[in-house]
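Fold these two proteins, one after the other.
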Amino acid sequence: MRHLALCVFGPDKPGIVEKLSRLVFDHQGSWYGASLAHLAGRFAGIVDVKVPEEHYSAFAAALQDIDELDIRIAEGNLAPGTGNCRDVTLNLVANDRTGIVHELTSTLSRLGVNIEEMTTGCHPGHNYGELFFAKARLKVPAEVKLDAIRQQLEDCGDDWMLELDE
């Protein structure tokens, strides 16, 4: 079996996911998981599939025949192991400003924390303009204390309301 990550991007419209799932099914593959979203008026997603080796070429060709979508095929299971890490959930709310995502991600990176999944967005605030929010699933090295992460992130802004949960 070929383990694949399909990166899919294109105009959003009904039937995209059905078309993808049909191709996986038609080529005797299995759909293992997906992260699909409507962002900036577009459809964007990553789909985790396995397809038998003997069906891979036909499957890849069929994906490329979907004219309205830009589909990239990457081999799966290439990520390095996370070793002795623990799962941590991060929730952040702060006043939105230029560079806030960079501050968050660079601070986590300096600490050796891997962001496995992250959702961000903005909502209108009551008094101070836009509020930024982030929710992330992190892999934190065993030697990194949650208090150290919390302190470094809170140093990014006194308006950062932060939750870290194991």
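Now the second one:
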Amino acid sequence: MKILVPVKRVIDYNVKVRVKADGSGVDLANVKMSMNPFDEIA
């Protein structure tokens, strides 16, 4: 049996999120990414 488990990478919850200077979104440069905590439980 084969099982497919989709997971999502999100910004680590210990990292303070920075907004881009123009306000168009989150600055993802040099940000630590981790697995979604709810996906870790699955």
